[in-house]
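ok trying this again, last paste got cut off
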Amino acid sequence: MKKRVEDSQTEQTYLMRPIYLNEYGNLFGGQLMEWIDEIASIVAMRHSEADITTACIDNLNFKEGATVNDVIVLRGKITYVGRTSMEVRVDTYVESRHGIRKVINRAYVVMVAVDEHHHPIPVPGLVVESESEKAEWEGGEKRYALRKERRREGY
């Protein structure tokens, strides 16, 4: 069985409140990490129709800040699947009152589908349709190989 990217694509918005801020008045990085993991989990559960666990987060570079009353938008989608794992791309934006979005972060999260004993189980394949989906798939293959090399090196 295969699924399309849009079958599991997810978008979530948050209103920045003081509890999400660090001591400098900006979005706390740990809060963003939690939201990224949460949306990646939802995408992966929708794709696999199974319980999941987070295997790794590849990238977490902050490009823009966010403060009180900003709207934060996270968009997640499947970019690559292996036998039991799924790579989820999560883009985070700060959205102005005029609807203009600026990128805060892009993260690639690897999720693994698991059974009731927490053992990895196979996931559906991915139907890659558009040119951008094909490019993401090819990038996912490269990131998969890089992760495998890093594990072999003990990184």
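PB: full thing came through this time. The two ends are 34 Å apart (CA to CA).
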